[in-house]
Design brief:
D-Maltodextrin-Binding Protein, domain 2; 3 domains; 13 strands; six-stranded mixed β-sheet; alpha/beta; about 300 residues; five-stranded mixed β-sheet
Amino acid sequence: MTTRIPPMQALRAFEATARTGSLTAAAESLHLTHGAISHQIKALEEELGVELIARAGRGIRLTDAGERFALRIRGALSDITSAVREMTEAANPRRLSVSVVPSFAARWLLPRMRQFMTEHPDIDLDVRAAMGLVDFRREDVHLAIRYGAGNWPGVNAEFLMEDQFFPVCSPRIAHGVPKRPQDLSRYTLLRSDDEFWKPWFVAAGLDWPEPTRGPIFNDSAHMLQAAAEGHGIALGRRSLVGMDLENGTLVQPFGITVPSPRKFYLVYPPSFANSPKLAAFRDWILEEIGATRSPAQVKPRRSTKRRAQ
């Protein structure tokens, strides 16, 4: 009897769930819905005739069979990804795939891409905008620009730049541009899922709680677009609002800024460290950062292999 191999998407859905311990986290890592992951795992269990995942309270746990199966397919999927990457690289050696968070892609990288294309016509950038962290063992991506602490396991992380927070708004906002921090009480404050107003309030001498009303966004680019259209005042990041401040689309009412606890890093697998395409992209992006930052804000380049902390 011929053994039928389950669909690859079902195997990836199960492996991601086993690895993250959560259907929701697996869905986020694969850019699918919770329902799609659950459906694919159920179909896989029916195909194999074995229960792989069991409910445990509000969460899940792997069955004994699930533990064994996850261990076997994890290495196999990694080998498949490596083989696909090798074939893709051979077929298109000009391609350089870069994973980047959508807000940074839209508001920093894409406006500057023409310069890179002019300087490096032999490299075809493949920009992959995604909120989740890229897994180089499972995804056909060469490098990433990430915003965080820089302590991602098993990769090289090179510091690129720091960031700052400060309020921004449209110069044509209703009631006019606020003149004092206290004036913000009269305005709608636009909010982000994971970036908070409270540290800026403290720096401005305002004993205010974190806002709990008003529009909230999971993408900073959308929040800043809402601010540019006069829908409220956003807590902007220097890295994302630089060009809007220069062209007057947004204004910075106050000189008070707070440093971001997170920083930008160039991240890639150790196996890609000696790539000429990586070197070309690294040199270009550092030059672009230097052109938009004061010398004190740009640290010397350093490359380290980070482990989880």
